[in-house]
C-alpha cells in the first residue's frame, strides 16, 4: 500500500491536535515524563520487566532504554539482531508457543503476520505524522527511512546531477559505476507507483541495460562505499545514512528525486507479550518527544514534526518533492522484491 | 617383545578385562548417539523446511514449491557453474598455499619455520567479513591502495588488479582459508616416514620422482581430505560472494541462499531447497573420498615398525625458501592486516600510504572497549568456543575411529553424517536448533548451551577431517598389538592414539575454536540477553556503525587474545611432540 506524504501541513496539524493532550499530561505530573501513562505504569511495574527485540544497535538503543528504565523502574532486556533474523526468530517462537519478546522495533514490522501484533492506541501516536500510523493500529513509526540517490561530492559535480530518475540515462559515463542497493523493494514499489507499473519497470530495465549498475547488499555498506569513492553515485539509499556519512566528514550527499520512498522504523506490541502493559508503555515511550529527540541526535529522522531532525533541513530537503509512504505486507514484499531482484540481476 | 606376553591375556581373559573391553563400545555408542543428535537436528530442520510450504511465519503443509522456486530460476545453471569454478579454484589455490607452507614448516630445515606456524594461525583469527572488506580496500580498481600505489609508482593507466572478478574472489577466499589446508596437512607431513623417501633416493630416483611417486601417494588421504573440505567449504562460503561477487555480477549458490535468508521475512524454504544441492555434493564427495582411500592401511606411516620423520636439508635453498614463504605471508596476511590496522585508527576511509583527511587516533578502540556488551561478548565467545572445540574434537576422534577402523559396510554413513552439516547454511542450523530446543523440554533457550549445540553441529565436519586425516597415518597394527597385550579400548585411546594424534587434535581444536569465535549465521538466531558473542557485535558494527574504523578496531582487538591462545597451544603441542619423540623408539620399534 502506498500513501503520499505531505509532511509539513498534515504533520503540523497532527502536532497541533496532539499538543493539548501532551501539555495536559505534563501539567498533571511535572516530575514524570509526559509519555508515562499512569494507568499503565503500575501494572507494568508489577510485571517486572520488558523484553525488546530491535534492529537498532546497542550503542544507540541501550542509552535510549536507560531513560525508560530510569523513569519507570522497569528493567529492560534488549536483544538486537538484523531485521530478517528478528522476523525469523519471532516466527519460530510463535510456532513453538513460546514468545519471549514484548516489544518489536524494526523497519520491517509491517511484514510481521498481523496476528503476531496486538492492536493498541498509544497516546503519543497522536503527535506523529499520520502516514507513520498503521491503520490497524498494530505498529507506529518512530523514525522515517527516506530513500534518495546519493553521490560522492569529490567525484561528481552537483550541477550535473539528474533531475529525475529518467535523467540517469543521460549519464553513460556512469555505466558500470552506478551502484544500486539490492533489497530496496520499497523504493522500487514507489517508482512503479509514481509512473505506473509498466513504465516504472521499463525505466529500471533501461537503467540496468544502459548503465549496468553495481549491485550492493546493505544500505550502510553502500553509503560507506559512495562516501569512500568506490562508486560515484548510488541510485537508491537511505538518506539518513548518507547524511550521517556527510556529518562525519565524508564527501557525500543525497539529492531528492520524485518520488522519495518512505517507510518507517516502527514499534509494535506482541499479541502474546509476557509483559503486555510494560510493552505498551515502552511503545508510547518510543513515540515520545524525549525518545525521538534522542534518536534524532544519532541521525534518525523523526516522525514527530515537533522534533527537529539533525541536520535540521534533512526532512525539508527530502519532502520538497513527492514522497510516497510505502507499506508492504509479507506477500507484497516478496512479490516486489523478487521482481526488483530479477530486473537488476538480469545483466 | 615375547610371544607369551602378547597372547597371555587372550588365553585367559579375566572378568575385569571383559568389563574393560565393554567400556570401549559403550563410550563409542554414546559418542555416536550424541553426534547423531547434534547433527540430525539441523539436518531434520533442513529437510523439514525444504519440503514444507514457506508461510512467512514458519513452515506449513508438505510442498515441493520451494524446489520449484529455487531450481526453476533461469539463473540456476549459471549459479551452479560459477559455484563449481569458484569452489574448485579456491580449493586448488588454497591447497597449494597451505600445502607449501606445511611442507616448509614440517619437512624442511628452512629458518623461521616456527614463525610461519604462528602466522598461519594468526590469519585464521581475522573474521572472513573483515578479510574480504580489507581486500576490497586493497585491490579495488577504484579505491584500492595497492592499485593506487602501483599506478603512481609505475604509471599504469588502469588498476593492475581488480578484486571484483572470479580470480579476485578465489584469491580473497584462498588467502583466508589457506591456514586450514596448512593445519590439515602439517600433521600428516610431520609423521611422514622419511625412510621411504630416502629409499627412493638410494634407488636412484630424482627429487621430483620421489615427490610424485612416494611422498604424494602416501599423503593421498590427507590431500584428498583437505581438498574435499576446501571444495565444500568454498561452495558454502558467504562473505566473499556477498561483498565481492555481487558487485562483480558473479552469482553463486550461496548468493541465492543469502538472498533468501535476508528477505523479510526470511525465505527459509527456498534457502533449504538450495541447501539440498550442497548436501548432495557433500554426500557424493564423501563417497568419492572413501573410494579413493579405501585401502587406508596403505597410507599409514606410523606402524609397529617405527618411523623416522627427518627433515629435508635444503642447503643453499634454505633462505630462498624462507623468503618465498615469507612473501606469501606478507601478501596474503600482511596486506589485509595492514589495511585493517591502518583503518582502525581513522573514522573515515583511510588507506595506507595514501593521504588521510584527519589525524590518526585511538577513538575506535575506545569505542569498542566502551561498547555496552563488549566484555560480556568476549567472555561468552571464549567459553563457548573452548567448549565447542573440546566437544567437537572428542566426538570427531571417536567417530573417525569408527569410520576408519570398523569393518561394517555401512561405516561410511558415520563419515557422511559428520560431514553433512557443512552443507547446511548456518542460518538454517541456527533456525533449526532454535526451533528444536523451544519445542523440546530442554531449557537451553537464551543460554550459552544452545549456542554450544549449534556450534558442535556446525564444526563437526572440520573436526572429523582433522581426526580422519590423522588416523589414516596410524597403522592399525599398533592398536591390534595393544589389544593382544590386553589393553582395553579406552587404554588404547589414552596411551596410543591420543599421544600420537595430539598435534593434529590440537590443530583441530584451535581451528574449531577460532571458527566458533567467528561464527555468525547461527548465532544471530541464538544469542539472547547476556549471551551475545563477538561475531554478533562485529555484525552490528558492520551493519549499523557509521565508519569502517570501529569494526576494523574490533577485528584487531580479537586477534590479540587469539595470538596468546595460539602461543599456549603451540607450547602444549611441542611438549607432546617432545614426549612422543622420546617414547617412539622404545614403544614403537617392536622389531
Report on this model:
The complex is a heterodimer of chains A (347) and B (591). Chain A is of the alpha/beta class and 347 residues long. Chain A folds into 2 domains: 3-144 and 264-302, D-Maltodextrin-Binding Protein, domain 2, CATH 3.40.190; 145-262 and 311-344, Periplasmic binding protein-like II (D-Maltodextrin-Binding Protein, domain 2, 3-Layer(aba) Sandwich). Helix content of chain A is 42%, strand content 17%. The two termini of chain A are 29 Å apart. Chain B has a two-stranded antiparallel ribbon with strand order 1-2. Chain B is globular, with a radius of gyration of 25 Å. In chain B, β1 and β2 (59-62) form a beta hairpin. Chain B is 73% helix and 1% strand. Chain B has helices spanning 3-11, 15-50, 65-71, 76-107, 113-125, 128-139, 145-154, 166-190, 194-202, 207-218, 220-236, 239-245, 253-261, 268-292, 318-343, 363-370, 374-405, 412-419, 426-439, 448-471, 477-484, 489-518, 523-526, 534-544, 548-588; strands at residues 52-54, 59-62. With 591 residues, chain B is mainly alpha-helical. The longest helix of chain B is centred in the last third of the chain and has 41 residues, at 548-588. The interface between A and B is large, with 63 and 58 residues.
Amino acid at each position: 500500500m502506498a500513501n503520499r506524504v505531505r509532511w509539513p501541513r498534515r504533520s503540523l496539524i497532527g502536532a497541533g491536535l496532539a499538543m493539548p493532550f501532551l501539555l495536559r499530561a505534563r501539567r498533571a505530573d511535572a516530575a514524570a515524563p509526559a509519555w508515562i501513562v499512569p494507568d499503565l505504569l503500575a501494572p507494568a511495574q508489577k510485571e517486572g520487566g520488558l523484553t525488546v527485540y530491535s534492529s537498532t544497535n546497542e550503542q544507540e538503543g541501550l542509552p535510549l532504554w536507560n531513560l525508560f528504565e530510569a523513569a519507570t523502574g522497569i528493567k529492560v532486556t534488549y536483544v538486537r539482531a538484523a531485521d530478517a533474523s528478528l522476523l525469523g526468530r519471532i516466527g519460530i517462537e510463535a510456532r513453538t508457543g513460546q514468545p519471549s519478546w514484548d516489544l518489536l522495533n524494526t523497519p520491517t514490522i509491517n511484514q510481521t503476520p498481523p496476528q503476531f501484533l496486538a492492536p493498541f492506541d498509544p497516546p503519543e501516536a497522536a503527535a506523529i505524522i499520520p502516514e507513520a500510523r498503521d491503520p490497524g493500529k498494530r505498529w507506529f513509526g518512530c523514525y522515517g527511512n527516506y530513500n534518495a540517490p546519493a553521490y560522492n561530492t569529490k567525484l561528481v559535480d552537483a550541477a550535473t546531477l539528474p533531475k529525475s530518475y529518467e535523467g540517469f540515462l543521460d549519464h553513460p559515463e556512469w555505466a558500470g559505476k552506478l551502484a544500486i542497493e539490492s533489497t530496496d523493494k520499497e523504493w522500487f514499489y514507489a517508482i512503479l507507483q509514481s509512473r505506473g507499473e509498466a513504465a516504472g519497470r521499463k525505466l529500471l530495465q533501461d537503467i540496468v541495460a544502459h548503465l549496468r549498475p553495481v549491485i550492493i547488499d546493505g544500505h550502510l555498506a553502500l553509503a560507506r562505499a559512495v562516501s569512500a569513492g568506490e562508486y560515484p553515485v548510488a541510485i537508491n539509499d537511505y538518506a539518513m545514512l548518507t547524511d550521517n556519512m556527510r556529518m562525519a566528514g565524508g564527501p557525500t550527499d543525497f539529492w531528492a528525486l520524485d518520488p522519495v520512498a518512505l517507510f518507517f522504523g516502527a514499534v509494535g506490541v506482541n499479541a502474546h507479550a509476557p509483559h503486555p502493559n510494560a510493552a505498551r508503555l515502552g511503545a508510547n515511550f518510543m513515540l515520545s518527544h524525549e525518545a525521538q529527540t534522542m534518536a534524532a541526535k544519532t541521525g534518525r529522522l523523526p516522525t514527530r514534526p515537533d522534533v527537529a531532525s539533525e541536520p535540521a533541513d534533512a526532512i525539508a530537503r527530502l519532502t520538497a518533492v513527492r514522497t510516497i509512504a510505502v507499506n508492504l505486507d509479507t506477500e507484497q514484499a516478496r512479490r516486489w522484491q523478487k521482481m526488483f531482484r530479477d530486473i537488476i540481476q538480469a545483466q | 617383545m615375547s610371544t607369551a606376553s602378547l597372547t597371555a591375556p587372550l588365553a585367559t581373559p579375566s572378568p575385569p578385562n571383559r568389563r574393560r573391553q565393554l567400556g570401549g563400545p559403550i563410550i563409542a555408542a554414546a559418542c555416536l548417539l550424541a553426534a547423531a543428535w547434534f547433527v540430525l537436528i539441523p539436518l531434520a530442520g533442513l529437510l523439514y523446511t525444504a519440503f514444507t510450504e514457506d508461510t512467512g511465519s514458519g513452515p506449513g503443509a508438505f510442498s515441493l514449491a520451494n524446489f520449484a522456486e529455487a531450481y526453476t530460476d533461469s539463473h540456476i545453471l549459471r549459479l551452479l557453474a560459477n559455484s563449481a569454478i569458484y569452489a574448485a579454484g579456491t580449493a586448488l589455490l588454497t591447497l597449494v598455499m597451505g600445502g607449501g607452507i606445511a611442507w616448509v614448516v614440517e619437512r624442511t630445515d628452512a629458518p623461521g619455520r616456527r614463525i610461519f606456524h604462528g602466522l598461519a594461525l594468526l590469519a585464521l583469527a581475522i573474521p572472513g567479513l573483515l578479510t574480504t572488506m580489507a581486500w576490497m580496500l586493497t585491490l579495488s580498481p577504484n579505491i584500492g591502495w595497492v592499485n593506487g600505489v602501483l599506478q603512481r609508482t609505475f604509471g599504469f593507466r588502469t588498476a593492475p588488479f581488480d578484486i571484483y572478478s572470479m580470480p579476485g574472489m578465489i584469491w580473497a577466499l584462498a588467502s583466508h582459508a589457506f591456514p586450514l589446508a596448512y593445519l590439515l596437512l602439517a600433521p600428516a607431513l610431520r609423521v611422514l616416514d622419511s625412510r621411504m623417501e630416502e629409499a627412493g633416493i638410494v634407488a636412484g630416483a630424482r627429487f621430483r620422482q620421489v615427490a610424485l611417486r612416494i611422498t604424494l601417494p602416501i599423503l593421498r588421504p590427507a590431500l584428498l581430505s583437505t581438498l574435499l573440505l576446501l571444495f565444500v567449504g568454498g561452495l558454502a562460503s558467504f562473505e566473499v560472494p556477498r561483498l565481492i561477487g555481487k558487485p562483480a555480477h558473479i552469482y553463486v549458490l550461496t548468493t541465492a541462499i543469502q538472498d533468501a535468508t535476508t528477505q523479510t521475512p526470511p525465505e527459509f524454504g527456498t534457502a533449504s531447497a538450495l541447501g539440498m544441492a550442497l548436501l548432495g555434493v557433500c554426500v557424493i564427495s564423501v563417497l568419492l573420498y572413501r573410494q579413493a582411500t579405501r585401502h587406508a592401511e596403505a597410507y599409514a606411516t606410523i606402524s609397529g615398525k617405527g618411523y623416522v620423520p627427518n627433515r629435508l636439508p635444503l642447503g643453499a635453498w634454505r633462505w630462498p625458501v624462507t623468503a618465498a614463504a615469507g612473501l606469501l605471508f606478507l601478501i596474503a596476511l600482511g596486506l589485509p592486516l595492514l589495511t585493517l590496522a591502518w583503518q582502525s585508527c581513522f573514522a573515515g576511509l583511510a588507506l595506507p600510504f595514501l593521504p588521510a583527511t584527519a589525524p590518526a587516533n585511538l577513538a575506535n578502540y575506545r569505542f569498542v572497549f566502551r561498547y555496552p556488551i563488549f566484555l560480556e561478548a568476549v567472555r561468552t565467545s571464549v567459553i563457548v568456543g573452548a567448549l565447542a572445540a573440546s566437544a567437537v574434537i572428542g566426538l570427531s576422534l571417536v567417530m573417525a575411529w569408527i569410520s576408519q577402523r570398523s569393518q561394517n559396510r555401512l561405516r561410511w554413513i558415520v563419515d557422511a553424517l559428520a560431514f553433512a552439516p557443512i552443507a547446511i547454511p548456518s542460518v538454517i542450523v541456527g533456525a533449526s536448533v532454535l526451533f528444536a530446543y523451544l519445542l523440546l523440554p530442554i531449557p537451553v533457550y537464551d543460554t550459552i548451551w544452545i549456542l554450544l549445540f549449534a556450534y558442535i553441529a556446525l564444526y563437526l565436519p572440520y573436526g572429523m577431517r582433522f581426526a580422519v586425516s590423522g588416523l589414516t597415518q596410524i597403522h592399525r597394527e599398533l592398536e591390534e598389538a595393544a589389544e593382544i597385550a590386553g589393553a582395553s579400548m579406552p587404554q588404547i585411546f589414552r596411551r596410543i592414539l591420543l599421544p600420537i594424534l595430539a598435534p593434529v587434535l590440537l590443530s583441530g581444536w584451535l581451528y574449531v575454536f577460532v571458527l566458533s569465535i567467528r561464527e555468525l549465521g547461527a548465532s544471530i538466531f541464538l544469542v539472547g540477553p547476556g549471551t551475545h558473542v563477538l561475531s554478533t557485535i562485529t555484525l552490528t558494527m558492520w551493519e549499523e556503525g557509521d565508519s569502517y574504523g570501529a569494526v576494523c578496531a574490533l577485528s584487531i582487538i580479537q586477534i590479540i587474545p587469539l595470538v596468546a591462545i595460539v602461543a599456549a597451544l603451540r607450547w602444549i603441542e611441542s611438549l607432546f611432540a617432545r614426549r612422543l619423540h622420546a617414547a617412539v623408539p622404545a614403544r614403537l620399534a617392536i622389531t
